[in-house]
Amino acid sequence: MKRLLLLATLIAVFLLSAAGAALAAPGGATWGVPGDFATIQEAIDSSDVVNGDTIVVGPGDWAGAFVTKGVTITGGDGAVISSGPFHAGAQVYMGFRLLAGSGGAVISHLTFDGADLAIMNGAAVDGVTVDHCVFVNTLQGISNWRGSDWIITHNVFEDLWARNGGGIAVLIGDFAGTTGGVNNNVVAFNKIYGTLHLGAGEQGGYNGSGVSIYADFRWGSAGALEMKGNVISRNKISMVSENPTLVDFDAVELSYATYPYAPPADEIVCGVIHDNSVLFNDLRGSGNAIVFTPLALADCNLVSRNLGDVPNRGHGVSPAAF
Questions:
Q1: 130, 156, 248, 277: least buried by Cβ within 10 Å?
Q2: 13, containing H or E segment
């Protein structure tokens, strides 16, 4: 079984590598911001802009948007998403929050600097592509809650920060027992590097993370029914915490999260998070390499050919409250 999973993973990663810069091949009309519209939100809200269209964002600082259509949002040189919809709970700006109707959207060639929850899946949206973007010191770079079939590739994450949660570059997670599971997401060919910074009032008790597969059963949440077929491959992750004693950093984590920490039997844990692949990643220079919470997850997922130690320790990531 694991050999078949390895073969399927290798084929998928090879196809992504061959696609390179041509991952998104949008059709439809092309619209400019500025030019046709004053803001990205105005473009998305226009009845003239439909699924399959492309919104090209010009140089300068721009606010992100609530995304309600399956459009491509791409930047030219110097296009920076520096703010966007405000998240009252976390008291930070989001960049793009994907809502119902945005399945199949593509976000590419943009820099996120100032939008601390840069890309958020807010409605179990499937089939989103995020490629060739730069994320600068975000609280959470890409937060794919409850979505399947995302492609997250060829992005750069420079520094992260945490404030009693967050400090995560890429999160694949579920907290609502999503019907059908959270499956077949690909995180490949990304670079995550720098320092995990800690905000004022940080109390610790968790770790930040480069890439996390996270079933969230904390505080009575419904967690996940199933998380399988997700691929983490060919990423370069090299990050350390500015205070690892308080909040350490895990390059990759697979976590069945409960609070207080009391995971169920191994067969139950492995019935939820299984047959995911963590392959060919370079994790050297990170605080911890690969962490399984609980350790049983090492036996029901394919983890092979990664550079770096596998200490299998840490408290687990804590996604920021949404």
A1: 156
A2: helix 2-19
Burial zone of 213 (CB within 10 Å; 0-12 exposed, 13-18 middle, 19+ buried):
buried
Structure tokens at 138: 């975000």
- Bridge-based pairing of strands 248-257 and 227-228 is unpaired
Q: Check: CB of residue 171 under 8 Å from CB of residue 142.
A: yes
pTM, rounded to two decimals: 0.91
What value does the mean pLDDT of the chain take? 92
State the residue for tokens 């220079």: 285
3-state SS, residue 173: strand
- Domain spans, the chain: 2-18+64-304
Distances (CA, A) of 301 to 56, 178, 203, 229, 315: 39, 20, 32, 9, 20
Query: Which token pair is 273?
Result: 């998070």
Burial class (CB within 10 angstroms; exposed 0-12, middle 13-18, buried 19+) of 110: buried
Q: How does pLDDT run across 23-78, given as a tens digit for each residue? A: 544 569 999 999 999 999 999 999 999 999 999 999 999 999 999 999 999 998 89
Cα-based angle 275, 147, 127 (whole degrees, multiple of 5): 100
